[in-house]
Design goal:
The chain has 514 residues and is α/β, with parallel strands linked by helices. The chain contains 22 helices and 11 strands.
């Protein structure tokens, strides 16, 4: 008898087990023994071991020298054990995840905004590699995905696809990135270096708002049984991984900052652009532990949650025009919208000499804080503005902390910055421009385009997901409806120890096969 059969299964209630394992990735037993055997053999050949979710949540459980001397951006299997928040920019382990506490001189509010940095993650310098691993690992250890015969298809607006391609290459399988053609040049430059064949980069029409076009392309590709779609928007491993790994990392950062403030802080709100809704799942853990409010953020140009609206925008990495299946909508407290005009222009200010000089010399932002702003990508800036709006909406004070993440850094957007400079600043950015940008996007942040959700608001947003998931993507209505109850989401967390047990057995077999 395998340990799979010995493991205590996660609860799926009255829901059909095949539906849970299929589209949702929620298998807790071996589905295909031959596929599992093939994965073990291939991982043994390529010296690949898999970290457990417990190890990624608490990297002190990983040998300190495990990846020592390994280039953090190389396709080396040991970098899988760096797929956590406890790295510095060099890839060395740190005791507390790298973060910054933004001061009043920058934000204009008394409440501290804590930002945890995602560009410390290996290979793609973005935290989406964690989402990719969280989706892939459960499929591998239960024998659903066979890297020896399947192509792993990663639908994304950029960073998740890059993370998936990186892990696919490490495992010795073929990874396919599916993303809108209008995403930043830097994303495509990276992919060109990592894919095994140029055809493994599939460019779909549009830009950030065109998620449905990604789904359509994947649905067509899925007709070929060799293609395995890892849809981060409905893979509940994405949610579970962030609940455990990102949630605990955010707690570690808050406890560290709170200790420095003599324990006077309350963790009032967590702001997160929804994207695939994996990261915002960490808010469920913060709410469990601290009573933290969960703030879902989207682009003002495409106010899907706010107004059931639509449109185009350039806050790359946050998705829209639909409600992800893995978004725990009924646990969301606030919805905020931020304009891409703000994120585009603040990106220019944070990454030009004139902008940084203005912040330091005219606004009194400490130089060490200004230097961290290059680690803020578009969605990070969006998350910070949403935190400012939230603090004003809720009337927060000096002892009320907000926390968020910087998904990636500014190094992924130089080509977009060139476009903004040409379109809005005549290819030159001065201190006068910086003053105008600061005045428009930081000094006058208001409480427009934000709602403190009622039950009716949450129900409206939840119901909007029906059209994508039940009508278009074939999700069973019973599964869709089950997500209204918090018991459904609590049950998901029971998969993590089961998966960790299966990962342990998988690794033992890999070692024995070498």
């Amino acid at each position: 008898m395998t340990s799979t059969n010995k493991a205590s299964h996660a609860s799926t209630g009255v829901l059909d087990a095949s539906a849970m394992a299929g589209q949702l990735g929620l298998a807790d037993t071996i589905v295909d023994q031959q596929a599992l055997d093939n994965s073990v053999a291939l991982c043994a050949k390529n010296n690949v071991l898999l970290p457990t979710f417990a190890q990624l949540a608490d990297p002190s459980l990983i040998a300190a020298n495990y990846a020592k001397g390994v280039d953090k951006n190389a396709p080396d299997a040991r970098n899988l054990f760096r797929v956590h928040w406890y790295n510095n920019m060099q890839g060395d382990r740190v005791d507390v995840p790298d973060h910054v506490v933004l001061p009043t001189s920058l934000t204009g509010i008394e409440s501290p905004i804590i930002v945890m940095f995602g560009d410390r993650f290996p290979m793609i310098t973005a935290h989406k590699v964690l989402a990719a691993y969280s989706c892939l690992a459960p499929r591998v250890i239960t024998g659903q995905f066979d890297p020896s015969r399947h192509r792993a298809v990663w639908p994304s607006t950029g960073n998740y696809a890059r993370g998936g391609v990186a892990i696919s290459r490490i495992m010795g399988s073929r990874g396919v990135a599916v993303l809108p053609a209008g995403m930043s040049k830097e994303r495509f430059d990276w992919l060109d270096k990592w894919v095994s064949d140029p055809s493994d980069v599939v460019r779909t029409p549009g830009t950030e708002s065109n998620v449905k076009e990604i789904y359509d392309a994947c649905n067509e590709m899925e007709k070929d049984p060799k293609n395995f779609i890892f849809n981060q928007f409905c893979e509940f491993g994405n949610y579970a991984g962030h609940y455990e790994v990102t949630g605990r990392a955010l707690s570690s950062v808050f406890e560290h900052v709170n200790k420095q403030r003599n324990g006077k802080l309350r963790l009032v709100a967590f702001t997160s652009a929804t994207g695939s809704a994996g990261t915002i799942g960490a808010g469920d853990r913060l709410k469990d532990d601290y009573g933290t409010k969960i703030v879902a953020v989207e682009a003002l140009e495409c106010p899907t949650m706010l107004e059931n609206g639509f449109g185009e925008h350039n806050i790359q990495g946050i998705g829209d025009k639909h409600i992800p299946l893995i978004h725990n909508v009924m646990n969301t407290d606030v919805v905020a919208a931020v304009s891409d005009r703000a994120t585009d222009e603040l990106d220019v200010m944070f990454n030009t000499a004139a902008g940084c000089k203005y912040l330091a010399e005219r606004k009194g932002v400490p130089v060490e804080i200004v230097e961290t702003l290059k680690h803020f990508g578009f969605s990070a800036i969006c998350n910070v503005i949403a935190a400012i709006k939230t603090a004003k909406l809720l009337g927060l004070g000096a002892n009320d902390a907000l926390i968020t993440i910087a998904t990636d850094g500014a190094d992924l957007y130089p080509s977009e910055r060139v476009k903004t400079l040409a379109r809005r600043f005549n290819n030159s950015f001065s201190e006068i421009d910086a003053a105008e940008v600061f005045a428009e996007h930081l000094a006058t942040v208001g409480t427009d385009a934000i709602i403190d959700c009622t039950e009716r608001d949450r129900t409206r947003i939840f119901n909007l997901g029906y059209y994508t998931w039940v009508e278009q993507q074939g999700t069973p209505l019973a599964v869709f409806e089950a997500r209204r109850s918090q018991s459904f989401w609590r049950d998901l967390r029971k998969y993590l120890p089961v998966w960790d047990e299966l990962i342990g057995e998988f690794n033992r077999r890999v070692v024995a096969t070498k």
